[in-house]
Design goal:
Number of helices: 20
Number of domains: 2
Helix content: 25-40%
Strand content: 15-25%
Number of strands: 22
CATH topology of the largest domain: Polyamine Oxidase, Chain A, domain 2
Shape: globular
Radius of gyration: 26 Å
Largest sheet: 7 strands, mixed
Distance between the termini: 21 Å
CATH class of the largest domain: Alpha Beta
Length: 573
């Protein structure tokens, strides 16, 4: 851990002495030692990072016996009506029996925070992430817009979809040593990253400090293509297999994503998800730790109030009134911004010295739908429907990879036109019963007979899908509306698309090669902005997003800052 300099510590203590003793302590009724007034912390954003910050603030403030050594009063603000950020579910067919992840879908066993939280909260996890269409011989295919460059047959035990294709024994005959070299490179990089969780690196004042200590700039400073070439991974395996993974996970080709994130895409052993939705991890984190939670509430203004202390104002007058009723009103000793700075729209009345840089985010279009139709063989240039894989990842040909490799969005997707298609579930009226809820978005068309199977699909794309594209993909007749300016999927008859849900996310940043990362500190005074300067107890979690963007790394960012905040409070006691 990078320690405070003597100058920084002196300034921090001087700031603390400016606060009157009456504000610091309150007497106990029995006349024993005075009890410290709780330190009040605001967390803005209840995604994985903010939820983890709340949970670990409470955890780190307690001693090994469970007693609270550093009393805290934690308030969480979230602009959405739910906790979990990009980990949210919708009910397929408007039926609560079929929750579907709209955003972040999986984590792995080496994701220590998520894995341990799932266990500690008693949540049930599953390794059966995707369903195979019973008529298909193949569980997964990788398509370059013209040909399937790879197909994976169904696993014998069907225990966990999309893991059999990363079986070294199944790949080595075709790609030589490339799979082994990829695994070695992945394990080396992940091994260095795991040092972030332990002393002497944890907790770290800057991501830069941790990156420098582990040598991970050799991965983040170069593209995935360059890192794989350096590891002597063959071009075919890189393009056909690994690039398919970077496209489905980060909507990027190998030349447009840094090497560490590329290798993270291949660390899929032990993939799992929480039954009913991963959001439950973060919901439990918040409600087991926070003293107050305000949903549908955005913080609009942060005003420095000396000490340092901060007054927060929101766009919700009811919440502002509730804050005013608190003994300290809307004043906080520290706050943690757990949302992208560029989207938070917060006014700092004392301007920040070095506000976080604006970075490009992926606009990811997610289309969830059910249909009685399977993926069409002619769409993929095949004759036999059984040869169409249940789920399809995409890549590019060698020529197209050279041409489009470092581009973004619709300019990067190439001939396939989409990033991935997943068959999430196969439903049948005979075994699953009626699966239409009360919404007008769902009708019984296509599910009225016992043999009318419904397929639940998820498509990732860089732009909205059209009705014409989807009808071609599924092989049914469709006439686009003549009155509409475009050709929305919602124009398709409900006999062909029985349920539909579309969502556009700022899903994650473009993970471009870089060697510098945003600090956790937000600073309004020059001393704080200097390297080794004193913290003003304003914190920013989302600099981690440009390093690695996952649920786990967001949670790690929250855990790390929670430890730093508690350590500072302990020094002030």
């Amino acid at each position: 851990m990078l320690r405070l300099t003597l100058l920084a510590l002196a300034i921090l203590l001087l700031q603390r002495l400016q606060v009157t003793a009456g504000e610091i302590q309150t007497p106990l009724r029995d006349g024993s030692q005075p009890r410290q007034q709780p330190h009040r912390v605001a967390i803005i954003g209840a995604g994985p990072g903010g939820s983890s910050a709340s949970y670990h603030l409470r955890k780190f403030s307690q001693s090994s016996t469970g007693a609270e050594e550093t009393p805290l009063d934690i308030t969480v603000f979230e602009s959405n009506p739910y906790i979990g950020g990009r980990t949210t579910t919708v009910n397929a067919l408007d039926d609560p029996r079929y929750p579907v992840e709209l955003g972040a879908s999986i984590f792995v066993e080496i994701n220590h925070i998520l894995y341990n939280a799932t266990r500690d909260f008693g949540l049930s996890s599953t390794v059966k992430l995707y369903e195979s269409a019973p008529e298909s011989k193949y569980e997964l295919g990788i398509w370059d817009g013209e040909h399937f460059v790879y197909k994976a047959t169904k696993d014998d035990d069907e225990g966990s979809s999309w893991q059999g294709w990363w079986d070294i024994a199944k790949l080595i005959w075709r790609y030589g040593l490339a799979p082994i070299r990829t695994r070695q490179a992945t394990r080396t990089a992940v091994g260095e990253f795991l040092k972030f969780y332990e002393e002497p690196i944890f907790p770290f004042w800057t991501i830069q400090e941790a990156v420098d200590a582990t040598g991970l700039e050799q991965y983040t400073g170069f593209s995935g293509k360059e890192v794989l070439q350096r590891a002597k991974v063959g071009e075919s395996f890189s393009r056909e297999i690994i690039q398919a993974s970077t496209r489905v996970n980060y909507a990027s080709n190998l030349a447009g994503i840094h090497g560490l994130e590329t290798l993270v895409c291949m660390a899929i052993e032990g993939a799992m998800a929480v039954e009913g939705g991963n959001w439950q991890i973060f919901d439990n984190m918040v409600y087991s730790s926070a003293d107050a939670v305000f949903l549908n509430t955005s913080v609009t203004t942060v005003t420095r109030n000396g000490g340092p202390r901060y007054n927060l104002t929101t766009d919700n007058e009811e919440v502002n009134a509730r804050l005013a009723s608190h003994p300290r009103g809307n004043e906080f000793d520290a706050f943690i911004l757990a949302a992208p700075f560029q989207f938070a729209n917060i006014n700092f009345t004392q301007p920040l010295r070095k506000p976080p840089q604006k970075i490009p985010y992926v606009n990811l279009h997610v289309t969830l739908f059910t249909s009685p139709h399977r993926l069409s063989a002619p769409f993929f240039g095949l004759d036999d429907p059984a040869d169409v894989p249940s789920s399809v990842l995409t890549t590019l040909s060698a020529d197209m990879s050279e041409k489009l490799g470092d581009r973004q969005g619709t300019d990067a997707v190439g001939p396939p036109g989409f990033w991935s298609i997943s068959t999430l579930d196969v439903l049948n009226p005979a075994t699953d019963g009626v699966f239409c809820g009360p919404s007008e978005n769902c009708t019984m068309y296509g599910a009225k007979d016992e043999d009318d199977t419904q397929y639940l699909y998820k498509i990732f794309s860089p732009a909205p899908l059209t009705g014409s594209f989807l009808s071609s993909l599924l092989g049914f007749t469709y006439t686009p509306p003549t009155t509409a300016l475009n050709d929305p999927v919602s124009s398709i008859p409900k006999s062909d698309i029985t349920w539909l849900h579309e969502k556009v996310w700022h899903s994650y940043p473009y993970e471009l090669p870089r060697t510098e990362f945003e600090p956790f500190n937000l600073c309004s005074f020059f001393l704080c902005a200097e390297v080794g300067g004193p913290s003003e107890n304003m914190w920013y979690l989302n600099g981690m997003e440009s390093f690695i963007s996952t649920m786990e790394t967001a949670a790690l960012s929250g855990m790390n800052v929670a430890q730093l905040v508690v350590d500072l409070f302990k020094m002030q006691q």
